Write a sequence for this structure.
């Protein structure tokens, strides 16, 4: 089968590899349809690491995918051959204290697709996954929509963890796919006002289309002043989705006393800091967000019903042989890129 390997910094090669086989009960052989290019993939592409997760080349990245069931192990009941599925990229052990507490996303023994030291990614023609990671999708959800259930589930989880509900005033700093999915989740929950900041104007314009009340570019204006002029008491929840020191500082400044700052962005540096006096005096809660927890089915439902227009984020489409080009486009924000899809089965 064909596989896209990351072979060095900013280097991708398409190679032949053996097709994986089902080895134990509960497993499913998946024929990959489509893979989404995620921001975390870009960390590995640009720098070869995220924190202490360092790539040993060659390595297969990619974790957002949709697939068709090609074969199932005896006893598999969740899916059958021919089913179209969205794939949860996290394989949890089901035994540790975190899994027993319903926190599979912080499983101590987890294996996440495309994560160094855990599991190869999904940029291949076939992969094997546990049946628990396979979610059948209705006809209303095409292969790209199925891919988008992964970032949409993150947006839903972040919104739920934040407590954002009807009447809330929220800020979203960074209008990439994750920030836009957070926006969709907050709007669906009845947020009263949504303020979005983004350094790329075309992404700000997309945020407006998807429900932002106000957008601002921090490279051209003081966005903290602009938002506080409109909301003098501050915002109930601010979602930091860019992974930058500057956006974390802005998030703390925008949060009201007793408000929350949700940390979704992945910095390319090992440490960031906060202004202790501001956090302490306002008693702001800083809440990191680790992927998602039990939100995949709800994400599928939102996409199928049209409540989450995730397809509006898809700007570029490629074949597996064009993975290098796809990665360069997203890594360098070329050609007004937001989300790229790699159609493996095209």
């Amino acid at each position: 089968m064909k596989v896209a390997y990351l072979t060095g910094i900013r280097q991708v090669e398409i190679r032949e590899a053996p097709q994986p086989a089902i080895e134990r009960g509960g497993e499913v052989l998946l024929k990959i349809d489509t893979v989404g290019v995620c921001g975390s993939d870009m960390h590995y592409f640009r720098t070869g690491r995220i924190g202490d997760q360092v790539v040993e080349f060659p390595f297969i990245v990619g974790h957002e995918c949709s697939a068709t069931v090609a074969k199932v192990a005896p006893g598999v009941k969740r899916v059958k051959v021919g089913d179209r599925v969205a794939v949860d990229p996290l394989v949890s052990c089901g035994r540790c204290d975190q899994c027993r507490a319903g926190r599979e996303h912080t499983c101590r023994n987890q294996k996440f697709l495309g994560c160094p030291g855990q599991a190869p990614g999904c940029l291949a023609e076939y992969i094997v996954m546990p049946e628990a990671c396979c979610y059948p999708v209705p006809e209303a959800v095409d292969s790209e929509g199925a891919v988008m259930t992964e970032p949409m589930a993150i947006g839903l989880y972040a919104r739920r963890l934040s407590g954002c509900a009807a009447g809330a005033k929220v800020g979203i700093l960074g209008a990439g796919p994750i920030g836009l999915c957070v926006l969709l989740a907050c709007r669906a929950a009845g947020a009263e006002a949504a303020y979005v900041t983004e350094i790329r104007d075309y992404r700000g314009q997309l945020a407006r289309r998807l429900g932002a009340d106000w957008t601002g570019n921090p490279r051209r204006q003081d966005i903290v002043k602009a938002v506080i002029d409109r909301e003098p008491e501050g915002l109930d929840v601010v979602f930091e989705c860019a992974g930058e020191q500057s956006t974390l500082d802005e998030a703390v400044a925008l949060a009201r006393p007793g408000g929350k700052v949700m940390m979704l962005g992945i910095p390319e540096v090992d440490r960031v800091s906060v202004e202790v006096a501001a956090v302490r005096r306002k008693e702001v809660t800083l809440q990191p967000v680790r992927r998602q927890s039990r939100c995949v089915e709800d994400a599928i439902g939102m996409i199928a019903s049209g409540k989450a227009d995730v397809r509006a984020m898809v700007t570029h489409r490629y074949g597996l042989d064009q993975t290098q080009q796809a990665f360069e486009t997203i890594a360098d924000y070329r050609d007004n890129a937001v989300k790229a899809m790699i159609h493996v089965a095209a």
User: Anything to note?
Assistant: DSSP finds eleven helices and 19 strands in the chain. Residues 152-288 form a domain with the Rossmann fold fold (CATH 3.40.50.720).
